[in-house]
Structure formats: structure tokens, C-alpha cells
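Continuing the series of single-chain predictions for the mutant panel. This is the parent chain; the variants come on the following pages.
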Amino acid sequence: MDQRSIRVCVVGDELVAGVGDPRGLGWVGRVAARTPAAGRLTVMPLAVPGETTAGLSARWDAEVSLRTDPAADNRLVIGLGRADLRADISPARSRLNLANILDVAQRRGLETFVVGPPPGGPETPDEVGELSAAFADVATRRNIPYVETFAPLVSHEQWLADLAAGDGALPGQAGYGLLAWLVLHTGWHQWLGLPSDTP
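Parent structure:
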């Protein structure tokens, strides 16, 4: 069994940073806490609030390269948000930006895991759903794990209540817990080559 240290860089927007979570964990911290890696796991969130896929495509490689270790199992998680919709980036361009990131990551030898955009904010559910479907298609075509967060949460009472209790765009403690649950139950441990402790 591979006993190297595991370095996971998580790039994305304010959802990756856990903005709005009173516990300060977000989904990334919750997922890391539930990952049984016997001290081998280091998770490094690299978030830029309001970031589009264009901005992410321009910055991720240089930032992640600073944090990889040739002796470690280096991995990349991409947490996608809804900023492309506010920036009027077309679904075709969003797809291309994600495809470019995934293709470069593959050339760098980085195993990649993608978390899709959840519902919320001023965008309509149809818009977010279309964007999520576009991202899912790009990842699936490359055999990269994709966590669909939109469909399970768009009508989820606890998620909607959590958004309504805040600014309507960012979840709070309960919402981040739901996002973490979806990640943990959509191939996370298998992707890391670790046993799962989640029921």
C-alpha cells in the first residue's frame, strides 16, 4: 500500500474557503476531518472569492506547483462555483476553461476531483443546472470524478433554509455539512485510495 504523504490542493471560489460558515470549516474542512489518512493527508485550500473559470484557469497551475512535493502523492480538487453566470461567460467557454485545467493537470500527473456548483444566489436554478451539467460532461468524458451538488440540493429543505437564513448565496453550517456529505459519498475515499469511515 502506498504510504506516501498525500497533498491535496483545493482551488475554487468562496465556497472552498467556507465563507459564511460560523464554524470556519466549510465543506473542505469537514471532508478533511472525515478522511482517515493516518496523518498522511495535507489539504490546502486556495480560494479566490468570486472567481470565474477564466480566472481559475489563469492562476491554478502556478499556485499548485508551489505546493507540490515530488516525494508526495499530489492531487487537485476543483471546487466550481456560479461566478461564470454573473460574468456572462457562456456555457461553451466555461466548458473549455474547465477542460483546459483538467488537461494541464493530467499532463502534470495530478489526479483530479471536481465538485460542481450548488444552487443559490441570484442565478436561476435552470442556469445553475445547465452550468453543472456542462461541467459534469467535461469531467465525465475524462473519467474524472464529479460531485453533482446542484440536483441533490435544488429542492432540499435544509439547504434552502440555510441559504435563506444568510445572504441567499452562501450556505451556513448546515449547508456546508450537506456539501461535505455529498463529497464524502461520491467517491472521495476511493479517489484517495483510502478506506471509508462514512456509513
